[in-house]
Amino acid sequence: MATTDFLGRLDGSVRSALLGQARRRKLRKGDFVYRVGDPGDAVYVLLAGRIKTYKIALRGREVILWFGFPGEVFGLVESPHDRARMVSVEACEACEVAEIPVARFREFLAAHPVVSQLLTQIIASRLGMLANRLVYLLADNAEARIAKLLVDLAARSPGPAQGLGLTHQEIANIAGVQRQTATRILGRLNEHGALAVRYGRIAIRDRELLARFAARHA
Amino acid sequence: MATTDFLGRLDGSVRSALLGQARRRKLRKGDFVYRVGDPGDAVYVLLAGRIKTYKIALRGREVILWFGFPGEVFGLVESPHDRARMVSVEACEACEVAEIPVARFREFLAAHPVVSQLLTQIIASRLGMLANRLVYLLADNAEARIAKLLVDLAARSPGPAQGLGLTHQEIANIAGVQRQTATRILGRLNEHGALAVRYGRIAIRDRELLARFAARHA
DNA sequence: TGAAATCTGCCACCTGGGTGACAATTGAGC
DNA sequence: GCTCAATTGTCACCCAGGTGGCAGATTTCA
Question: What's the pTM value of the predicted model, to 2 decimals?
């Protein structure tokens, strides 16, 4: 299980206690869990599907900060002080989320200090991941960035064998390149045998080779 | 006072209680507070000087994550679990820091829940700042990146009137450009009257104009 | 005070990847 | 099954910024 899987790391009883506090919401592709400026009055756990967290930059450019997979928790940072959301969260496919009002979530944490510690860990690791991404986005070229990105995602994705259901546009938006560049590079990695790409199904064929592409700058 | 000024936001008595727990360390330019891999067994408050937090990327490239100014706290993220440091912190000039062993810091937080909340806020805001930087680094061109960076720094820097004592190399390393590019752009911003640059003393002359450069992509 | 190290300013060249454009393919909804 | 929107594939062009190289300015510290 991925270390980012919050729900999976809770004891069964704690998990059901938490989910008992939650309202379930189903979302279709393109629906928002929340958007920039919404009140940050709830915390979410993704039960099924895939979500993306992003901001809109200059000229309408969508910059993806983070993809969320089942079991992961999100919406934590703005919630404690009920500030406006700083990012938008959108369903990449049909999703289900558990929504917990922040007041209840706080009570829950007070009653379960272990969970509170786990969250501290999760936030710290997310800060670390973001810092790492910043470093490689600034220092690497497009090919290495995309390779690193795929390695990272495969480590967190639930069924990497079947492939990641990412569009080229999404890959471009998280790697900070143009859609056409993403297409070109995915094609190249496919030719070299690192990936197995088939219309929207990107699977890693040779993890070693992919890691080698991730580590070189040329 | 900048909202990031941890020490400045503490009550006088709380502040002296905290500093009473600390060992003071003086550093010269180039000294490390800690380096990647060191044990994360202490938390620091910067008392004087300026520090930079960075990682080394491919090909020895230094990517600066964050500049710290007096009053700011750092070393928080790895500490609660005493993990190895994920970043290095180096003095940019003569500095003084207060070093608090993590065990004592934890006791202190338990005794002062207000401070604990403040830290949650600080970590959240740092996550937000990092996310913002990621967005503009991916979406903007070199000129807008450097302009935004200077606006951000001026907002946190103690005496922005006298100018920021940053080298072109440091600006390059945080904006993710080449040193020569930083020089070229600083020269341009100087010509246009947005900055007043004089050998290592970069002062903002026209904040409005600089913000305009930060907001355009061309 | 003087030598060495660091920092700044410039320049010419070159390339990675941005840009726009369009056709082919696929999947989703009717 | 059919239609339409979304996604993918590919191409030609071009420019922002990377690269290397060097001279002059400034600081540091012996």
Answer: 0.90
